[in-house]
Amino acid sequence: MKTSSERRTIRFAAWLAIALLTLFIHPPQSASGNAYYALLSQPYAAVETPLVTLENGTDGTSILNANHTNARITIDATQSQLTYNYSLNVVSNNASSCEVRLEEFYNTDISRINATIILHDNSNSSQQITMSGGNLTQTNTYFDLASNGTIHVGVMDLIESSEGTTILNVYIRTRTLNTTTYTLYILTFEFT
């Protein structure tokens, strides 16, 4: 009596013989062609300079990715109140003014941190996100960024209530004035 592996081997050999016999009786035909329209293709999307780019602030707390459109701000929070006015710079690449705001989309362990995150241009400021007592409040208020100008992300009145790590992921939403089209940049705050 044959085992199942021997039967499989015999079945495989039979199918292989049938396939080879079919190839000898009906040999494959050759085919040819050319790429006539290959050079006439047009792109469907244009590549544009981003509306803004991110730059390291003077507080030494930010790390940028290669194309300056995403960043991470790492701050050592303590039980003493700290302020970082220049954690990150948002720089306009546009000849026209635009608007910028911060929007939280993910967080972990915010109950250990009290802080207010603002946008400012050294003259005016706009409170964007407040974390206090485990609650997070965001204003969804746009801040004006002048053409070819710079605004700063600041972390005000930062204090921790316990040891640990808090992550706050926000979008930097930018849009040209009087439009509904926007671009999102990802900014991660890490409070250790």
What's the short story on this structure?
With 192 residues, the protein is mostly beta strands. 11% of the residues lie in helices and 47% in strands.
CATH top level label: Mainly Beta
Q: Calculate Rg over CA atoms.
A: 29 Å
* Structural category: mainly beta
* Amount of beta strand: over 45%
Architecture per CATH nomenclature, i.e. the level-2 architecture: Sandwich
The number of E-state strands comes to 12
Mean pLDDT across every amino acid position: 88
Q: CATH topology, anyone?
A: Immunoglobulin-like
Stretches where pLDDT is under 50 for at least 5 consecutive residues are none
Give helix % range.
10-25%
Total domain count: 1
Largest sheet: 6 strands, antiparallel
What is the H-and-E element order? HEEEEEEEEEEEE
Query: Distance N terminus to C terminus?
Result: 70 Å
What's the shape?
A: elongated
Sheet with the most strands: spatial strand order: 1-4-10-6-7-8
Could you walk me through the main structural features you see in this protein, from its secondary elements to its overall organization?
- This protein has one helix at residues 4-25; strands at residues 52-56, 62-64, 71-75, 82-92, 98-108, 113-120, 125-132, 135-138, 143-145, 150-160, 166-176, 182-191.
- It starts with a helix and ends with a strand.
- The mean pLDDT is 88.
- The chain is elongated, with a radius of gyration of 29 Å.
- It has one domain (52-191): Sandwich (Immunoglobulin-like).
- The chain has 192 residues and is mostly beta strands.
